[in-house]
Amino acid sequence: MDIKFCGAAREVTGSAHLITLKNGFKILLDCGLYQGSSKHMKDFNNNWLFRPPNIDVVILSHAHIDHSGRLPKLVKDGFEGTIYSTHATRSLCAIMLLDSAKIQERDAEYANKWRKRHGKKGKKKPLYKTEHVKKTMDRFKTTGYNQWFSVHPDVEVVFKDAGHILGSASVTLRIREGKKTTTIGFTGDIGRPERPILRDPQPMPKADYIISESTYGNRVHEEAPGEKEKLLKIIKQTCVKKKGKLIIPAFSVGRTQEIVYMLDTLSSAGRLPRIPVFVDSPLAVNATEVFGIHPECYDDDLNEYLLTDKDAFGFRNLHYIRSVEDSKALNTIKGPAIIISASGMMNAGRVKHHLFNNIENPKATFLIVGYCAEGTPGAELRNGVPEIYLFGEIKKVKANIEIMDSFSAHGDKDEMLDFLSNQRKSNKRLFLVHGDYDVQQSFRTMLQKAGFKDIVIPKLGQSYTLKTPKKGKSKRN
Description:
Helix content is 29%, strand content 22%. It folds into two domains: 2-219 and 411-476, Metallo-beta-lactamase, Chain A; 227-407, Rossmann fold (3-Layer(aba) Sandwich), CATH 3.40.50.10890. The chain is built from 13 helices and 23 strands. β2 and β3 form a beta hairpin. It is an alpha/beta fold. Residues 468-477 have low confidence and may be disordered. It has an eight-stranded mixed sheet with strand order 6-5-4-3-2-1-22-23.
């Protein structure tokens, strides 16, 4: 069989990996949207490195858009197979893909208005529309964790909890070809142990071949034990002492709920200052409701907490904002407030407007709690730029910038190595994906020192025949 790397190859987003059996059966692992600014990737989302009608099944690791965001385009372009995922992943995809479609439609509308004003010919078309999302959701088939299921008479699959976001999973495939059975493991995004809300990542069954993410393969996250106290300190410094706004750019799914849960525990303990807290993202509001209907993903600590607090995502002074008018009104509030808003990289969504209106206010603080791709406002602020370009204006960075990487949902290099540690003896070849190339090189060196022998960093579009390392060879398609 062959494997072709069709996305997230020496890049952090756009996950897509194609397995083709000898009999022609094609399995696509993830179908993600590219969310970066690399020039060589500018046409990635519009094109395929395979023919969508030829794909038989998609196996989806989790709902983040960089893993699921091109599914509606896949359906639009002729895919008629089944999409397999966990129950919670489907629930999240239902709202996240719809949100993505609305963004595609809105971006196309704005672009066409601009083209018309400037006398440009041709029209920009959205990547896909809401109608394609509805057709996509009809193709889903869901299952729980730890249950082997068949996607083909010769292919069995099992999902193991990856501990990354609600419903996230590693994927292990047992593929029979003649008398031989080959096991392939796909980590998806590796979560972190002892994080709030979710269970710890479960180890994958031993596999012959592993496709592993490598996002933070060159760093160790700051320790988590003091994060609640650090968050409280930032709240007091910004909202109590300076009476300013604390703005937290956060991904709508996962990060927002984790922060709200942490604030909920502080509120229940009587430690949270009495200031208004706003979750300003319709997607985050909907996602929080999805979290409430999937307790099968909760860890023991949250289940115990729910015995004394029936709503872990709701407390006095917490307000969920849906309407555009209410969102705009947040910028006219006088006095302290906490605003949690998407997107986490500050390159889109409502938080970009909060950035525009507050970045020159020395009383305000922006707390960055997640990965920011190069070229995004979040990355620029992480790098300490003195000014930033927003909506056609140059803004001076006068607000305080804080960073808390302990909130990351991605395992760091030590946590990823620990997750992969049970694969040392069984693994014939390990492919590193979902990472920047320099980071992947660093992680490869670490894995080699740990005893992994054949580690490959594939290029976009590169294919490999899955044989033993001595006989295997790569080829370009």
